[in-house]
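User: Sequence recovery, please. Input:
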């Protein structure tokens, strides 16, 4: 069974790196897109920040509910503020999840499993995309990056 205190601490070690990544202010990195049609650095950062909140809500509600948030941003400061807001809201949600909610079965995109499986997937998802952000920054010429955790 997933221990929520342990999970939240582990999640925060990774989320703190996201906060560091959105403080990088080099050559308008926040708008950098490594390929045509790809997510920009800022959009990807917000995708990471919002997704774990969506998964936490799914565990609490017992079903997937798409986010209704339409993050509007134009500056690095906007992205920093939104990442901070998502982090605080997600931390609160994670703290409210019960053992019963973690054990409940949930269906998500054709897969049914106990909710804790999807919460573990949420962390994997965040780590995966954080790696992409690190790669974006390198491609954009950033020399000094935070350690991945």
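Assistant: Recovered sequence (149 residues):
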């Amino acid at each position: 069974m997933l221990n929520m205190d342990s999970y939240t601490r582990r999640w925060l070690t990774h989320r703190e790196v996201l906060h560091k990544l959105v403080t990088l202010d080099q050559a308008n990195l926040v708008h950098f897109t490594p390929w045509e049609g790809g997510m920009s650095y800022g959009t990807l950062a917000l995708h990471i920040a919002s997704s774990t909140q969506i998964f936490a809500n799914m565990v609490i509600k017992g079903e997937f509910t798409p986010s209704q948030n339409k993050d509007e941003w134009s500056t690095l400061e906007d992205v920093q503020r939104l990442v901070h807001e998502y982090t605080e809201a997600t931390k609160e949600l994670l703290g409210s999840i019960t053992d019963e909610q973690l054990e409940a079965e949930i269906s998500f995109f054709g897969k049914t499993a106990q909710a804790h499986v999807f919460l573990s997937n949420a962390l994997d998802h965040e780590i995966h995309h954080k790696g992409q952000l690190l790669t974006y920054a390198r491609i954009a010429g950033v020399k000094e990056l935070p350690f991945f955790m």
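The CA atoms of residues 71 and 124 lie 23 Å apart.
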